[in-house]
Every structure is written in C-alpha cells, then in structure tokens.
Amino acid sequence: MSPSKHLVVVGGGMVAQRLVEALRDRDTAGTWRITVLAEEPRRPYDRVALTSYFSGRDAEDLALGDPGLWHDPLVTLVRDERVASVDRAARTVTTARGRVEAYDHLVLATGSSAWVPPIEGADLPGVFVYRTVDDVAALRGYVEELSQHRTVRGAVIGGGLLGLEAAGALQALGAQATVLQVGTHLMSTQIDLGGGEALRRLINQLGVGVRLNAATARIRPHRRGGVGRLDLADGGRLDADVVVIAAGVRPRDELARDGGLEIGPRGGVVVDDSCLTSDADISAVGEVACIQGACIGLVAPGYAMAEVTVDRLLGGRAEFPGADTATKLKLAGVDVASFGDAFGTTPGALEIVWADPVAGVYKKLVMSDDARTLLGGVLVGDASAYASLRPMLGRELPGDPAAFLLPEGTGGPPDLELPDDAGVCSCNNVSAGAVRGAVTEHRCTDLGAVKACTKAGTSCGSCLPLVKKLVTTELQKQGIAVSTALCEHFALSRAQLYDAVRVSGVRSFTEVVQRFGTRPDARGCDICKPAIGSILATTAPAHVLDGERAALQDTNDHVMANLQKDGSYSVVPRIPGGEVTPEGLIAIGAVAQDFGLYTKITGGQRIDMFGARIDQLPLIWQRLVDAGFESGHAYGKSLRTVKSCVGSTWCRFGVQDSVALAVLLELRYRGLRSPHKIKLGVSGCARECAEARGKDVGVIATDKGWNVYVGGNGGFTPRHAQLLAEDLDTETLIRTIDRFLLYYVRTADRLQRTAPWIGDVEGGLDGVRAVVMEDSLGIAADLDQQMAQHVLDYEDEWKATLEDPEKLRRFSSFVNAPEVADPSLAYVPERGQARPATADERAAALRGEPVLVAGTTLEVRS
Amino acid sequence: MTILDEPTAVWTAVCRLGDLAPERGAAALVGGEQVAIFRLVDGGVLAVQQHDPFSDAYVLSRGIVGSRAVEGVEVPTVASPMHKQVFDLRTGRCLDPAGKAPARGLPPDLRTWAARVRGDVVEIAVPA
Ligand code: SRM
Ligand SMILES: Cc1cc2nc3c(=O)[nH]c(=O)nc-3n(C[C@H](O)[C@H](O)[C@H](O)COP(=O)(O)OP(=O)(O)OC[C@H]3O[C@@H](n4cnc5c(N)ncnc54)[C@H](O)[C@@H]3O)c2cc1C
Ligand code: SF4
Ligand code: FES
Predict the structure, then answer these.
(1) Where would you find the membrane-spanning parts of this chain (chain B) (predicted)?
(2) Distant-in-sequence, close-in-space partners of A273: CB < 8 Å, separation ≥ 6
(3) In this model, does residue A855 exceed pLDDT 60?
(4) Nearest CA owner, ligand 2 atom 31
(5) A524 chain-B contacts, CB cut-off 8 A
(6) Number of independent structural domains in chain B
(7) Which of A299, A490, A816, A830 is the least buried, fewest Cβ under 10 Å from its Cβ?
C-alpha cells in the first residue's frame, strides 16, 4: 500500500530526528510519507554533545540514532534547504531555493537561534555564537589559527549553562577563558545564590575567570583586525582575542509569525497539550514551541512533544505530560545539578542546605512543609546524589533527607528502591520499570545491552549511574553475579590483583593463590590461571613455558599456536606492519606446501597456515625461524598486528612513512601480554586506508606529525577510536602509546578491550589523557621504565623453545607413542587445499563410501 | 575407580612421571584408545578420555588443570581447551556444560581409567 498522507517537517534538529524515528517505528501500516527540510548541511546530530567536538569527536560521531533511518523509503531528508514561507491555505511550504512541498500535516521543529544582544562590535571577526557544528568548527579554526602566534585570550558573554560549556571548550582549545555574567551569580536560571557562589569557586579552580555583574557595553576591534577588547558598563575592560556570545536563545518562530499563527508573549509558536498550533494542520515541537506558557530550552521536553505528535498523527490521544527541567552541567571537573523546584517557590517549602566552602560543595534539598516529600534541589561540587534523587521528585524520601546531603564516606545516602513508574532517563522517557524489564523480560545481562534495549542513558548520559545501579541490583536478584571478583578462587578484580602482584613482587601462581586467593590450597581454573599468567608476564617477565608458568597457559599459549575445531593448530608468523619480502613469502609457501597446510591471508594483514598437528609445530617453526620469522602471537592475549597502509613512500597522498612507523611499533610491542588482544594501525594520511581508527591504538599521519586515537575495535560491538592527542612527533607518540598500553595492562578487567576499559576507567577518555599526557597519577616514569624493560627483555618465544629440549617435550602426539600421528584427524580436498572432514564425511568414510578422507599429509596439489 | 577392584583390569605402564609436566595433561594411546593423563600438583595422576564430547575433538589433555569446590571438597578439574566445559578429573563428571550440549547426543560425562605411580612409572588400568 502506498502511503496516503504526506508529513512535512521543517528543521532537521534533535527533536525532528526523534519524531521521524518514532513515527517510522510506530506507523507500521506506512500511512505517512515524511519529508524533512533541514537548513543545516548535515544529518540531525547530537547538539547536546556539541562540546565533545573539541575533545576529538568529529561531526560524524555526533550523529544521532540509526543512520538507516535516512535510507527508509518513506523518509526523505533534504539538507541545506531552508524553508522560507508557509502557505496555510494551499497547505504548501516553499524553500529559499524555490522547492515547493505540499503537506497533509506540517510540523515546525525549527528550534532556536543563539541570541546576540545589540552590542556595538558584535559583528566583528572573532565573535562567535555556540549553537551548531558549523559555529564550533569556525570557533575552533579561529582559535587554532591565532594560537600559532600567541596564547589566545577568550571571553564568554553569558554565565549560564551554555556559557560555561563554551568556556570549557575555549580552554580545551588551549585558550584562556573569562566568563562575563550580567547577574549576581552563575547559572542563575537553575541554581540559587549559594550554589552560584560555590560554582564560581569551582570554575576559578579550573583556571576560568569569572566576572559577575559585568554587562558588556561594546566590543572593540584590535588594530590588527578582529576583536581586541570588551568595554564593560561599569567602566572596566577586558582584553580578548575571541568572544563567544552565549547570552540566551530565541525561538525560530519567523515562519509561524509570517503565517499568522499565534505567538507567545516572549516568542515561540503557541501550542496546546497535543502540540497543535492555532492551525489544526500544523504542529510545533521542541524549542520553537511555546507550550504551557513557555519555550523550553532542553531536549527531553522536545522529545516528549515529538512522541505526543506521533501519537496524534496515528490517531492517538496523547498529551504533553509537563516538562522535566532538571539539568546537569557537562563540564569535566565540575559537578552541578538542579532539579524540580530548585528555588523553593512552593508555598511552605523547606530548604535543607549543606555547604562545605573548603571542599567547594553546596547542596540543597527543597522539601514539602512536612519535610517528607522531595520538591527539588541544587547540587554543586558533588552531584553524585543527582541520579538517585531526581526520580524521587514529588515522592516521599525514606528516612532523614539530610542523609542524602552528607559527603561520601559518612554512610552515604540510603539505598532507594525506586517505584517502577519513576522516571529514570528523562531524555528518553524511560522508567525504572522499563530498565528492570530489560533485565527480567528481555534478558539483557549488562549495561550496554540495557542501553540498546531501552535507549536509557543514550543521550546526555546523566542517568547512567542510576541505570547501572538498577541493572546491577536486578541482575543480582536474578542470581547473575555482577561481583568484580575474578572467579571463585580470587575475590579481587583483575586490576586489584595486578596491583597486589606487582607491589608484592610474587612470581608464581602458587604464591599468588596462597597470598591473595580465597582458598590457599585451591589450584585455580581456566579463568584465573591465564589471567595470572598474563599479569606475571608483565610484572615478572619470563618465557611462557618456564616452570610453573606453563601450567597457567591456555592451549594456544601453551603450544604457541591456535587450536582449531578438529584439535589441529594454525600457525601465524609475524609480518611486522604487513611488510614482507618475496623471499619471505616463498619461505612461508614452501613450509605450507611441505606440511600440507591450508593457507589463507588473514583479516589482520598476514598469513595463517592451518591443520598443523601438535607434533609438527616444532618442525614447522624450525623452518620458519631459519627463514627469519618469529612468533606472530596470533594465539596470545597480547599485541597482534600493527596494520599499515603503504604511506608516503609510494602513495601520492601520503604525508608520513606509515609502514616504517608500523614496523617500529610492532617490533616495540610484540610479545606484550595484556588483558585482551591489542591491535594497532597506522595510516599515512587522513584517507585512513589502514582503518587505524578501528584499532585499539590508531595513528594517522598529519602534515605536522601524528594524531593518535584510542579505543577502537571491530568484532561484535565495533567502535571508532577517539582522539587522544594531535600532531605528536614520533618520540612523543611512542611515549604516549607506551603509557597508554601499560596503563591499560595494569587496570583493565580480564578480556576487556580498550574501548570498554576507557568507558570504565576513572575519568573516561579525559582521565586516560590526564594520566598519559599529564602524568596526573604520577606513574608515568614507572610506566616508561616498565615498557623499556619489556623492549629489552623481548625474545622470540618460538626460537627460545626450539633451543630448549625440556620445552620441546610438550609437543609429542602421545607420551607413549610419539611417532604415531593423531589418528582422529581427517581432511578432504577443497579448492585445491585440505580442510577438516565434516562429521557426515567421516561417518560416510567409516561406512566405506567413496569419500576422500585422509590425514594432514594428504596430497592435494593437482 | 571401581575398576581397581576388578580382577580383569591390567595395569599398563604408560610413561615416566617425569614425562608429565605438573598440572598439565598428556595424551597416550592405551589399548587403541586415546587417554588423557594428568599429573596433579601433589604428584598424583588421573586419567580420563582424550575425546571431548562437546567439541567431538581429541583434545582434553590440553585443557587447563585446576580445582573447584564441590560440596566443600576441593575437586581436581580440567577445562576443555575448545569451549571451556569443566570436568571432575576423578569421576569424569561434567561439572559445567558451559551452556552447550554434547555433540551427536554423546553423554556429557567422561570415561575414567584408574591410574597410579609405581616408582616413577605411570600405570593405567586397562580392562583385559
Ligand atoms: C585468523 C583470523 C581470521 C582470518 O582468517 O582472517 C581470526 C581468527 C580468530 N579470531 Fe579474529 N581473526 C582474525 C582477525 C580479526 C580481525 C581483523 C583485524 O585484526 O583487523 C578482527 C576485528 C578487529 C578487532 O579485533 O577489533 C577480529 C575480531 C575477533 C574477535 C572480536 C574481538 C572484539 O573485541 O569484539 C574475536 C573474539 C574474541 O577475541 O573474544 C576473535 C577471535 C578469533 C579466534 C581466536 C576465534 C577462536 O577462538 O578460534 C580465531 C582464531 C583462529 C586462529 O586459529 O587463528 N576475533 N579478528 C584473523 C587473524 C588475524 C591475524 O593475522 O592475527
Ligand atoms: C552547546 C549546547 C549544549 C546543550 N546542552 C544541553 C543539555 O545538556 N541538556 C539539554 O536538555 N539540552 C541541551 N541543549 C539544548 C538542546 O540542544 C536543544 O534543546 C535541542 O537541540 C532542541 O531541539 P530542536 O529540534 O527543537 O532544535 P534544534 O536542535 O536547534 O534543531 C532545529 C533545526 O532546525 C533548523 N531550522 C531552523 N529554521 C529552519 C527553516 N526555516 N528551514 C529549515 N530548517 C530550519 C535549524 O537549522 C536546526 O538545525 C544544548 C544546546 C547547545 C547548543
Ligand atoms: S569471524 Fe568468527 S569464524 Fe571468522 S575467523 Fe573470526 S572468529 Fe573465526
Ligand atoms: S537522562 Fe539524559 S540520557 Fe538519560
């Protein structure tokens, strides 16, 4: 059935995205065809996360939702297309380029624009607003350009949520920042004077200047051009090379005004609780809508309006539930949150305040007159209680409310058992019950799965601590252990055990289990043994098969090859950076030929030979070692490959020698045992042919040096690596990667790759950057030393094994019949090579049917 | 276990204790069958089938040897190197099927052989 109706959406912002997504989800009959006319030149993106554009995310990373939405045949997104007018009588809209679209229903989702107060000089070069990707890209370019010559001084006009974020962004760009606030305190819409004062101190501590009661009278140019200085109303002045205006927003209601729709007293398109404007064929949603008397500059109420509109379009009767205006500042190092009746305007409201000026903490709860029901609150300096308090709004708090304000370590807030209908994630309107249901009904077993299932925590992220707590509690109820204990033999997590082993200097499994185990006489298991083997490999380096170490290894590490489904093994020689000589290729080919091994190029830029019997491994390796190859550690939780592109040596576009760097890195980190495998990639220019951002560490050449990205992987949950540092010279780059890898080795959980580790480790990516680049934990020298030792100690495991008859004894097929090959192995030819026989083929051969089944030495060459 | 008392079992020498690495297994061919022999940390020796009923491959001697508390007793175990099913080395009982069922409808538990060390020779009781 072809769609019978046409919905036109003006504006391609966050709320428009949610509206289209929800409509396509729910309109299963395909009644509506949707056209989105968007002024910005890109797909809808996460404006809330705009500031993270400065910490290395690129515009792509800000994309919202499933990109597949925009390939839906019923959805048309027209970018770079501003709507200029609406003809309500004809029910058409016309764009600035002259495109005309007829609608059955029209939705205005035009958002707001940054408000620029009428100040002289506001149009000078170097004055920016902060609303779109293009705005921040221009600001970034301007600051980067200037900072090549001097330290850039930045001023931010406006001390609200946005102004503080902009100041943080300026700082992230290496500029000085001063915030000018017209009123008496920062964030005056959300927090009270006491909170504002505490916030000012915190902001100062971050190195951002704050001037209160500071109205800007004029922006003056510099004689070299661009802005130079701000003149304040009180006669003061402030030198500035760049100015960001964050003085507020204005709804983009111009289409509605021109079309004669009702407009609110302070702007915005007036809508009723069903989000309809004064024209029943037109709705307005998001920031442009004036709902229940006001425009709301937050995304959650916008999403709620989108859902209401979709419901109405499909014949439902949903109504806007009222706005949750709770906010939390997303500035690293500053905790501020405000929710509910933060100013205590409810008649009879009681305020309970706890302030510690020394620690920079201010907390206030607003309670009903009987001090039992929570009405609102302000938290500055320590907002840890925010996630659990916000859903309790309008409900009775158990026990003494003051308990929620006391600092951590004094018993902490009582555990809240949230009712199922309490909202947990307001961005996505997810209740506690829905989160619990994800675990109980949809069988999610970790936070990631619950996020994917419910969308909770996928927008601003401020609800994540609470979501995590709910998930953990629910899992525990299901009897699913979420303890961090390694296994039944160790109550410690891997990171704790790593530290314990490193600090105590113990060198063997027996010592480790006796000192740190749950039962000193236990002998471990397939979980803790390899984990301890891996820990000892970097705390007390020794050959994998030395003494008791041999008993800790999985079969892969124990025979230094990869176990295959039939019990045979595969062999991968190291090919550093993917660079291999013709002679090397011929040597590998000859080995494969002589031992009848199935041969294939791996997904990791090297060659794998399959079907080797355990007793053949030493013979194969003797040949490979003689030809100059060494173990590729394809079997180890350790460095795998450093993938490279061809780079500047040959490529027309290359700006650095990516192959040389890849080889250098692979030789440096080879053999480094880690919580999970580690992969690196090096691309010679931004075209990224080595797919470096799909690796745990990705290096991309720039004109000035190397950019390094961390936390990428393929696999089940692919992740793009995030920018850690830019334009490093080779020496700094190597030091940075050294520290990154060892910090990971020390603190990650077992079988945790770098991406989830970065999500879990203290401070996230910023925390990692602080440790690696600024030595915030004071462990850099120690890490540098540990890596230097690793490089020094490295020896090829296979070569060492071949030289040690004791170790070679492990490779016999049968202790009592070393000359007999494993009779269970059976192969059939396929595409010119051997492959394991299937169960059916074996059975057929046993029945005497004519199936060609033979041992590994099967002749398959034609 | 009970085979020990059966008059029909014959103790067959397989290798020297020194041929076995502590807390690892080794495969042996005994009476035409593949047996996985394990040397425990205390020098004791246990034997189960080399065939892993879950993956249908002859690999159990290459698993990680450990122990697990079963009803308060520390039981010696081996985990299949293929998909980590855990077996009691003394009884062959599968303690953890790791969410899988054995291949081709095979029983999950392992066959065991009595094993002992005489002098430094490892012996397996083979039914006559
Ligand atoms: C051989 C190879 C496939 C091939 O023929 O191309 C391969 C084979 C295996 N991969 Fe892989 N992976 C191979 C490249 C990759 C790649 C591609 C790459 O490296 O660029 C990826 C995606 C990139 C990445 O790792 O982020 C990849 C992601 C995985 C994953 C998912 C990891 C994750 O973080 O989600 C697993 C599962 C795991 O490790 O838990 C896995 C696990 C495995 C295992 C260990 C599965 C197993 O237990 O048997 C396979 C080992 C077989 C063997 O004997 O070698 N393999 N595997 C590739 C060896 C590359 C090499 O030269 O060493
Ligand atoms: C830096 C920053 C941080 C923020 N942080 C938070 C936060 O932490 N929490 C929170 O809740 N909110 C936050 N917000 C506010 C949040 O981003 C907005 O509430 C939300 O984006 C509103 O969505 P919208 O779709 O109504 O408008 P927008 O996302 O602004 O989208 C409107 C779109 O319509 C386009 N448009 C306008 N007129 C036309 C036309 N005539 N024709 C075609 N297209 C048109 C615009 O170009 C724009 O792309 C933040 C905003 C910024 C800028
Ligand atoms: S994708 Fe799966 S089947 Fe293929 S090699 Fe990797 S793990 Fe094996
Ligand atoms: S409250 Fe914003 S993501 Fe949940």
Answers:
(1) none
(2) A291, A292, A308, A319, A320
(3) no
(4) A13
(5) 64, 66-67
(6) 1
(7) A830
